[in-house]
Specification:
Structural class: alpha/beta
Strand order of the largest sheet: 7-8-10-9-13-17-14-15
Shape: elongated
Number of strands: 17
Strand content: 15-25%
Radius of gyration: 24 Å
Number of helices: 15
Number of domains: 2
Largest sheet: 8 strands, mixed
């Protein structure tokens, strides 16, 4: 965790390892005076700063960085200058600020900085409130600071982590900034918790172990929780979840977490997450190369559990049910076989044509359970569901599919607020026949002639939500190894955590 201090004083009055400066495009030019914060640095510590910046060809274009070492009170410190870029119509996109903060934190830690001070830029250039700007600052600083190094034994290869931040603002904004930072650090911690679970080796985070994490969170945060074991799952008639787990020596679990608001007559929403802690493909075995990152197939479940902890702290005015279906998909003499027919919790049946299309099988039972026992006003499921999703959208947008416009609008708004971006794929009824079977109600893979496997998989899930407003988020492309964004590193991203928290906080 990063400790933080909000200050009205000049940041140079604080003793830290690095000082950060946000610079708009062309704010530094040969014939112009430096901005006030840079003038302060020049007057007190580096008289040739203006000339140095000009000689360094620093113009303040987006994500441009220059680093200046200098001595302060007998200690070598660094000033990091980072460009905000040029505003279009006098306004900068807030996503650019997120990336700039990520770049600042990464640059500071690359110079062995364990503490960092900077003043928040003017929130008006992003057309947001100062509280929201502070919130994004904390979220992204926390995310950029994450590095999965649990198994690195050489100290110098572990990298430097940021432990303290000093954030400058004025007296008028101090309270709002503090509120924003508190909320932001909570959300950033939730993102990183999900990332850490996903990054753990699959033998170190099995279905029973992940359900234990959920129980610990529930106990600590006074959340109601129910954990169903494999014996209970079989007794309940959850043939999808039990069937996928058959090849594993470890029990599958269904974890149900509940957050209840004190607001009277509040609505209830359900978040449902796919939790395949390792996916070999089952008997429809994946190629070896495709298995290398299949520890990430529980990213949806990890996100839901982390979200529930954050909501217990942030306390939105909506009831939230978090349901995660946890299993391993492994081959063995007991494993589900192509050609098997399974019966789900809501009584429907499916022909299993490919055991590597297992995520929809476990989600079917989890969705059915949510509808029957909670009758929520809306359901959103989150899953690394299809290999076709990153083919369609790449690594920067999660796929959003729904036939409920109001719910999609709410998700788009949450995506804009959070930076967890989504893009709609067409959940059009022309694709409905793609999952028909001649021997069961459904087939678990679509007929080849329909293509669009991501959309067809969503239609499979639709059979288990009844008339409840429902949206499906496929995070197969966004959950792991997203390139080029400064607040991510190789590995898990925590996709969906920020989005679902904002959705709950802004639910109407």
């Amino acid at each position: 965790m990063i400790t933080h201090t909000v200050t009205e004083k000049d940041i140079l009055s604080h003793e830290v390892d690095c000082y950060g400066y946000f610079v708009t495009h062309n704010a530094v030019a040969a014939a112009k005076k430096l901005p006030a914060d840079l003038t302060q640095l020049q007057d007190t510590h580096y008289p040739d700063l203006h000339a140095w910046l000009v000689a360094s060809s620093f113009t303040g274009k987006a994500l441009e960085v220059r680093t200046l070492p200098f001595m302060k009170n007998g200690k070598l410190v660094h000033a990091v200058f980072i460009g905000l870029g040029e505003a279009k119509e006098k306004q900068l996109p807030i996503e650019r600020y997120r990336r700039v903060v990520g770049k600042l934190v990464r640059t500071a830690t690359q110079h062995s900085g364990e503490s960092l001070a900077f003043s928040l830029p003017d929130e008006r250039i992003f057309d947001v409130t100062i509280e929201f700007l502070a919130k994004q600052t904390a979220i992204i600083a926390t995310m950029a600071n994450y590095h999965f190094n649990d198994f690195i034994t050489v100290a110098e290869n572990k990298g430097t982590s940021l432990y303290a931040m000093v954030i400058g603002t004025n007296a008028q904004h101090k309270k709002a900034v503090q509120t924003g930072l508190n909320d932001g650090f909570c959300m950033g911690h939730a993102v990183n918790k999900a990332r850490h679970w996903v990054d753990l080796p699959p033998s170190d985070l099995t279905p029973p172990q992940l359900s234990l994490k959920a129980e610990e969170i529930a106990q600590k945060n006074n959340l109601a929780i129910t954990v169903f074991t494999e014996k209970e799952i079989n007794k309940m008639g959850m043939g999808g979840l039990a069937g996928v787990s058959r090849g594993s020596d470890l029990d599958c679990h269904l974890v149900v977490m509940e957050y209840h608001t004190k607001k009277k007559n509040a609505q209830t929403i359900a978040f449902v997450g796919k939790g395949i802690t390792f996916d070999s493909g089952g008997l429809s075995l994946k190629p070896a190369g495709s298995m290398e990152t299949m520890k990430d197939d529980m990213s949806g479940a990890a996100a839901i559990i982390a979200v529930m902890e954050a909501l217990a702290i942030l306390k939105p005015d909506v009831n939230v049910i978090g349901i995660t279906a946890l299993a391993e998909n492994l081959p063995s003499g007991k494993a589900l076989m192509p050609g098997d027919i399974i019966r789900f919790y809501n009584g429907k049946t499916a022909e299993v044509k490919n055991t590597d299309a297992e995520g929809r099988l476990i989600l079917a039972d989890a969705l059915s359970y949510a509808v029957k026992h909670y009758k929520p006003d809306a359901i959103i499921d989150l899953a690394t569901l299809t290999g076709g999703c990153p083919v369609a959208l790449g690594p920067f947008f999660s796929a959003l599919m729904s036939q409920h416009d109001d719910l999609m609008d709410a998700i788009y708004e949450a995506a804009e607020l959070s930076g967890d971006r989504v893009w709609e794929l067409p959940l059009d009824d022309d694709f409905k026949p793609s999952i028909r079977s001649t021997v069961a109600d459904l087939a678990n893979i679509s007929e080849r002639k329909y293509g669009a496997q991501t959309v067809c998989a969503a239609f499979f899930l639709q059979h288990f939500v009844g008339d409840t407003p429902w949206a499906h988020l496929d995070i197969a492309g966004t959950a792991y190894d997203v390139p080029d964004l400064p607040y991510y590193r190789p590995g898990a991203t925590g996709a969906g955590v920020r989005l679902l928290i904002e959705l709950a906080l802004n639910w109407e």
